[in-house]
């Protein structure tokens, strides 16, 4: 399946049974969703090409499995009833093997699995989160940092950042670089596509695209403490003009991401707590100036240079990669050795506060 | 050559030892299975060590910390002790009296204790050079694998002392024979694990 | 003085008491949660006091010590394992019900604090896997397998008591954590760096580490015991391909335990080194790598789930064959499928973390391997259906569980294939879809199997059948309750709701969480039915007595003994000539024969090793958790001395004289002669004293 096309949903050529079930489920979901204005929460209502492909593969898997599963549902009650103790059916107490039956019950699942394996290989490779999305447009670079319990979104080419809200242009590939500034977390926007783990000192990659404008829900999926359930964010896919306006607005109305802001981020709390710490209302924060090296500094855990110049100029061509971080984690240990003093642990940026009670700033 | 049935892999005591020889079938088999599970643990620690070779975090590495001479001495101590324990097993099987059995066992014990002592001194030397487990992932992995082996050797030595006591109290009865057979397996197994450590950790690190 | 109490108590302080937070900082939330926590702690203390009180009142301490705690008898040990499992089942189901209630009422809030919820899902998972499922299946195999292979006991009875002691110690530790809180909030999987001391320095994660360590050591020893027994103690004529299928799965389960538990022992040990001695295995900095933990954990975790399910498969094989009055279909195929599952279970562990950033090809390989392992499982399902085909199916309570299993487990398999597909897993990983899937495998798979085994073998173990009305109510309530509690979770997972979340802010989730909450209530009712069933059964034990020992017209050797069997199982070890040896004997009129001669029987003597292991194991783990180093050293020393001392022991057996064996056996044979055999029509009536009308050429009457 070529996901770079924005064609209409072709759907799987499943049998009428699965299509009916699919309609019913989608209807049910939409009915339940109709009452709320929370935005798209699930891949059952896909809003991007990745989520759409996953949706279709999901139904394909169910359809194929039903070949093996349906007979169990049909025949178990039938056999149990027909051959009941007080029934009149034939009784063969020593009948314990049949070549035909064995060939069927080994052979059919084997064929089903073989077919599904081919499709699985294809789909896994095509939908690899590390694979850049095709398209005429240059991807937008976004760097994501997971904190306890909020997400920081850095736009390295624009030199801005936000907390708690991700604004992206619709119909344009987004190329994510992700890391964690605390424990292991998982970044997830269900309506758009795959989830991806984020780990401290490592960089993972993700590529998504929103097919059209809309609001989607995003969240952390990996438990990381008592604020886990609040670690959610909104994703707004807007027109390219609206996106440019958004960038301008942030540059004008946001505050610079310096030491004070980073201290607020490092403290355990939600995006709302960060906003409050920085003297703002609501649960999102906008940063008008971000050091270009902030993301790699967090990854490499050297000291941040708060006086460093702002964003690099926009990159030309498809997603350029920095040192080795387009490969998979485990091979992304920092390229340059950081000299460390013998007796202390490596220091990260201002120490994350891991105590139970949040200290006042 | 006798045509006695072999009841388990390794040195069988044979018919003259009647009860112990038959009972060993089950006991020794069980002990081999236990050794397999222990082998998995060591294998996983080897794998962990291999994946953490790169995790030196700027701290001291094999070049600064490993000394081939010391590792070689430890290897010889264990290899010779395996030989002497083998002699003890042969003494158990072929001799009527206990004299040589006890002599060989004592020599093995001395060698085993010498190994542990030398290893402890070696760790101390590494600590002095900053090679402490809290320094890096690489050192953590080293200090999980090698001291676990050392702990096993310690346990084997304690077991050996306990068995010497049992020989004093009960004589060479079949309980003691069964136990000696199993201890022999542990002893040789630890020797093999040490060969792995010497090759992969010390030789590999310094190559 | 202060220094002394620090030394004695380690880091144990008043804040470990469950009501401390509530007293120090009273808010609505801390009070509600404090009351729940204190209530739970009170139950533990009350329960212990009630048991101790009853034992004292009825003067049963000596019997408890002599006949149970120091007994090396595999049948008694099996029963004790199952008792531990059932008590822990009760606790963990209540924890689940509380979590379900919280999520049903929890849109935007709820009554549980996030920390409390964190502990609940951690203890629920840890208990269900390590202290309910493992002891339950260990107990069933312990009790039944030696009887089925015609042995007198396991190969290493004393080691069996040590396994029991280690599990009891772990269970006790988890129970004590209710009184001296908190427990870990890291989930049953305990991923670092969340569980490292930088993030969670308290006693919680340490409780978890040591409880799990005790359990893994116990299971490793059990695996060795089972494997050696099956290899070395089969009776004459019982070659491997004549063993009941339940013994085959026991063998495969044992192999999985031997090879699958060490990775967890290593993972928790390394985590402990990180926490206690500042090592850097899984820290983010200084060269640590958290991904190593995840690989180690799931190298254990995947074989573990097959350890959990294979015994259930074995039980279902016995039940389908017996209650269809027919030979098990496809014995050889089932053996091959079981072995295939055991081997393949070591090749699929990566599917638990597809999202961790591996390359697509690596993910795809493991996805395909996972689908492959579904093939032998599917074959088993069809083999069981074909066992019923052309049989005469009786809808006993075990059969109700088995039929429910057949259909519900298959659904779980379907959701498993969905999760095995990496591209789709990227959507549903760590969501409630995953939770629904593994409960779908564990409840209809493992739990129904255990409950079926409980109903099936109870008359053999205790000499009377379980009461049936409450039994059927329990079975149907479990089936309906499971569906109502977990099918909504599939929907919730697809709608994006993650697991381990105390509350949610999407109103669309509410109808589903409410339905799931209702399901939890039905499950609570099912548990109540099980308790009522046991109560009534004990009351009605004279009426439902089956002393002859064959209430179901069984096919394998365990049914050829009295109920309960004597300590030595068989007066003379039987010789077998085929599958289903007891049915073969009964068909040929050769059952209940008087042996030519009786011999003295040597059995292992009672031993206190199990009790010593339990006490020292518990104290060491407790001491390690609370930094009470003197306790660790002292109990460790006692354990070491006990092991060494045991080596010196020589009077480790007792002889049962031939005359006594003869007396016991002939008394039973006289009973058999006096009893009226019944057909399967009267299987559930008082007339069934455990003697069956013999089959005619294999046809069950």
Please give the CATH architecture of the largest domain in chain A: Sandwich
Mean pLDDT of chain C: 95
Number of helices of chain C: 21
Strand order of the largest sheet of chain A: 8-5-1-2-3-12-11
User: CATH topology of the domain at 60-545 in chain C, anyone?
Assistant: Cytochrome C Oxidase, Chain A
* CATH homologous superfamily (4th level) name of the domain at 60-545 in chain C: Cytochrome c oxidase-like, subunit I domain
Please give the most extensive interface between any two protein chains, plus how many residues each contributes: A-C, 100 and 100 residues
Q: Please trace the helix and strand order of chain A, writing H or E for each element.
A: HHHEEEEEEEEEEHEHHEH
SS content category of chain C: mainly alpha
Family (chain B): Belongs to the cytochrome c oxidase subunit 3 family.
Subunit structure (chain B): Heterooctamer of two A chains, two B chains, two C chains and two D chains.
Organism (chain B): Kushneria sinocarnis
Main location (chain B): membrane
Explained architecture:
Chain B: Keywords: Cell membrane, Membrane, Transmembrane, Transmembrane helix. Chain B: It is a multi-pass membrane protein. Chain B: This is Cytochrome bo(3) ubiquinol oxidase subunit 3. Chain B: Belongs to the cytochrome c oxidase subunit 3 family. The complex is a heterotrimer of chains A (361), B (207) and C (701). Chain A is an alpha+beta fold. In chain A, 32% of the residues lie in helices and 17% in strands. Chain A contains seven helices and twelve strands. Chain A is elongated. With 207 residues, chain B is an all-alpha fold. Chain B has a single domain, classed as Cytochrome c oxidase, subunit III, four-helix bundle (Four Helix Bundle (Hemerythrin (Met), subunit A), Up-down Bundle). Helix content of chain B is 78%, strand content 0%. The model of chain B has no long low-confidence stretch (mean pLDDT 92). Chain C is built from 21 helices and two strands. Chain C has helices at residues 2-9, 20-24, 28-57, 61-69, 74-104, 114-148, 157-179, 203-232, 245-277, 290-323, 331-344, 360-388, 397-420, 422-428, 432-462, 469-494, 510-539, 581-587, 609-626, 629-648, 658-674; strands at residues 601-604, 653-656. A two-stranded antiparallel sheet of chain C has the order 1-2. The mean pLDDT of chain C is 95. The A-B interface holds A 333, 337-340, 342, 346 and B 54, 57-59, 130, 135.
């Amino acid at each position: 399946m070529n996901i770079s096309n924005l064609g209409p949903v072709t759907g799987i050529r499943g049998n009428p049974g699965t299509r009916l079930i699919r309609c019913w489920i989608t209807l049910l979901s939409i009915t339940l969703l109709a009452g709320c204005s929370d935005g798209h929460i699930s891949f059952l209502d896909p809003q991007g090409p990745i989520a759409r492909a996953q949706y279709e593969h999901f139904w394909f898997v169910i359809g194929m499995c039903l070949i093996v599963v349906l007979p169990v549902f049909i025949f178990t009650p039938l056999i149990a009833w027909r051959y009941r103790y007080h029934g009149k059916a034939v009784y063969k107490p020593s009948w314990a093997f049949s070549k035909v039956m064995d060939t069927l019950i080994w052979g059919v699942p084997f064929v089903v699995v073989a077919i599904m394996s081919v499709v699985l290989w294809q789909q896994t490779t095509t939908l690899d989160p590390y694979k850049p999305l095709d398209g005429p447009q240059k991807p937008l670079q976004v760097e994501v940092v997971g904190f306890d319990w909020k997400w920081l979104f850095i736009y390295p080419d624009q030199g801005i950042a936000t907390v708690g809200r991700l604004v992206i242009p619709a119909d344009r590939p987004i190329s994510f670089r992700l890391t964690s500034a605390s424990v292991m977390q998982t970044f997830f926007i269900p309506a758009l596509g795959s989830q991806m783990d984020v780990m401290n000192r490592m960089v993972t990659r993700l590529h998504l695209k929103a097919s059209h404008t809309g609001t989607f829900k995003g969240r952390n999926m990996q438990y990381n403490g008592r604020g886990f359930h609040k670690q959610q964010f909104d994703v707004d896919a807007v027109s390219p003009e609206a996106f440019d306006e958004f960038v301008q607005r942030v540059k004008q109305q946001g505050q610079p991401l310096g030491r004070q802001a980073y201290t607020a981020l490092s403290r355990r709390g939600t995006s709302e707590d960060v906003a409050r710490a920085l003297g703002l209302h609501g649960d999102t924060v906008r940063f008008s100036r971000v050091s270009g090296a902030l993301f790699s500094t967090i990854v490499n855990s050297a000291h941040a240079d708060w006086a460093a110049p702002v964003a690099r100029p926009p990159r030309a061509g498809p997603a350029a990669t920095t040192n080795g971080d387009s490969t998979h984690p485990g091979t992304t240990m920092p390229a340059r050795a950081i000299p460390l003093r013998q007796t202390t642990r490596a220091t990260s940026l201002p120490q994350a506060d891991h105590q139970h009670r949040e200290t006042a700033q | 050559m006798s045509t006695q049935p072999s009841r388990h892999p390794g040195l069988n005591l044979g018919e003259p030892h009647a009860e112990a020889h038959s009972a060993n079938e089950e006991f020794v088999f069980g002990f081999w299975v236990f050794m397999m599970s222990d082998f998995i643990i060591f294998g996983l620690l080897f794998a962990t060590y291999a994946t953490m070779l790169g995790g030196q975090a700027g701290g001291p590495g094999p070049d600064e910390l490993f000394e081939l001479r010391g590792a070689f001495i430890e290897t010889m101590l264990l290899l010779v002790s395996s030989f002497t324990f083998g002699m003890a097993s042969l003494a158990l099987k072929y001799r009527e009296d206990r004299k040589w059995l006890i002599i060989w066992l004592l020599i093995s014990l001395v060698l085993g204790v010498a190994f542990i002592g030398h290893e402890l001194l070696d760790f101390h030397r590494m600590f002095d050079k900053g090679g402490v487990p809290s320094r890096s992932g690489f050192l953590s992995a080293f200090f999980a694998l090698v001291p676990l082996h050392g702990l096993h050797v310690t346990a084997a030595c304690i077991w050996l002392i306990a068995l010497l006591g049992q020989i004093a109290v009960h004589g060479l009865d079949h309980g003691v024979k069964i136990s000696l057979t199993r201890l022999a397996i542990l002893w040789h197994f630890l020797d093999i694990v040490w060969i792995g450590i010497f090759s992969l950790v010390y030789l590999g690190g310094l190559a | 003085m202060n220094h002394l109490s620090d030394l004695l108590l380690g880091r144990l302080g008043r804040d470990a008491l469950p009501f401390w937070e509530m007293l120090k900082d009273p808010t609505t939330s801390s009070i509600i949660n404090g009351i729940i926590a204190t209530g739970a702690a009170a139950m533990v203390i009350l329960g212990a006091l009630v048991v101790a009180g009853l034992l004292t009142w009825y003067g049963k301490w000596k019997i408890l010590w002599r006949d149970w705690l120091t007994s090396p008898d595999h049948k008694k040990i099996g029963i004790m394992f199952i008792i531990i499992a059932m008590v822990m089942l009760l606790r963990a189901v209540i924890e689940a019900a509380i979590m379900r209630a919280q999520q049903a009422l929890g849109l935007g809030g709820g009554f549980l604090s996030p920390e409390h919820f964190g502990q609940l899902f951690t203890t629920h998972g840890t208990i269900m896997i390590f202290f309910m499922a493992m002891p339950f299946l260990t107990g069933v195999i312990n009790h039944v397998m030696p009887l089925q292979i015609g042995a007198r006991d396991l190969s290493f009875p004393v080691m069996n008591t040590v396994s029991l002691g280690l599990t009891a110690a772990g269970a006790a530790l988890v129970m004590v954590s209710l009184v001296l809180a908190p427990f870990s909030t890291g989930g049953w999987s305990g991923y670092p760096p969340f569980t490292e001391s930088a993030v969670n320095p308290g006693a919680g994660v340490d409780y978890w580490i040591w409880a799990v360590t005790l359990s893994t050591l116990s299971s490793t020893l059990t695996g060795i015991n089972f494997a050696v027994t099956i290899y070395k103690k089969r009776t004459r004529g019982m070659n491997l391909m004549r063993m009941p299928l339940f013994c085959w799965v026991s063998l495969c389960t044992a192999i999985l335990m031997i090879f699958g538990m060490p990775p967890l022992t290593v993972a928790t040990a390394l985590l402990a080194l990180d926490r206690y001695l500042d090592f850097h295995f899984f820290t983010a900095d200084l060269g640590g790598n958290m991904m190593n933990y995840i690989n180690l954990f799931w190298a254990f975790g995947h074989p573990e789930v097959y350890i959990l399910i294979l015994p259930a498969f074995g039980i279902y094989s016995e039940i389908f064959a017996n209650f269809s009055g027919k030979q098990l279909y496809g014995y050889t195929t089932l053996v091959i499928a079981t072995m295939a599952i055991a081997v393949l279970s070591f090749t699929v562990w990566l599917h638990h973390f597809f999202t961790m950033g591996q390359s697509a090809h690596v993910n795809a390989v493991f996805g395909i391997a996972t689908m492959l392992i579904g093939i032998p499982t599917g074959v088993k399902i069809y083999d069981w259906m074909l066992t019923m085909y052309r049989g005469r199916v009786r809808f006993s309570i075990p059969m109700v569980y088995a039929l429910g299993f057949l259909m519900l487990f298959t659904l779980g398999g379907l959701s498993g294939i969905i999760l095995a597909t990496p591209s789709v897993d990227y959507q549903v990983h760590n969501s409630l879809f995953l939770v629904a899937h593994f409960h779908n495998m564990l409840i209809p798979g493992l739990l129904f199997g255990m409950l079926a085994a409980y109903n099936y073998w109870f008359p053999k173990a205790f000499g009377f059948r379980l009461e049936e009305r409450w039994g059927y109510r329990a079975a149907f309530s479990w089936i309906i309750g499971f569906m109502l509690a977990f099918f909504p979770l599939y929907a919730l997972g697809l709608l994006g709701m993650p697991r381990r979340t105390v509350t949610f802010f999407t109103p669309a989730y509410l109808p589903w969480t409410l339905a799931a909450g209702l399901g939890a209530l039905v499950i609570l009712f099912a548990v109540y039915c099980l308790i009522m069933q046991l109560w009534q059964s004990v009351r009605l034990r004279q009426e439902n007595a089956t002393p002859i020992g064959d209430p179901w017209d069984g096919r394998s050797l365990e049914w050829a003994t009295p109920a309960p069997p004597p300590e030595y199982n068989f007066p003379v070890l039987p010789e077998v000539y085929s599958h289903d040896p007891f049915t073969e004997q009964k068909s040929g009129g050769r059952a209940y024969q008087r042996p030519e001669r009786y011999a003295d029987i040597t059995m292992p003597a009672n031993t206190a090793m199990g009790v010593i292991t339990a006490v020292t194991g518990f104290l060491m783990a407790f001491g390690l958790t609370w930094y009470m180093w003197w306790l660790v050293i002292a109990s460790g020393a006692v354990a070491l001395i006990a092991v060494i001392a045991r080596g010196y022991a020589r009077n480790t057996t007792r002889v049962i004289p031939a005359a006594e064996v003869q007396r016991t056996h002939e008394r039973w044979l006289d009973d058999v002669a006096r009893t009226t055999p019944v057909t399967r029509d009267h299987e559930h009536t008082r007339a069934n004293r455990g003697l069956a009308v013999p089959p005619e050429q294999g046809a069950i009457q």
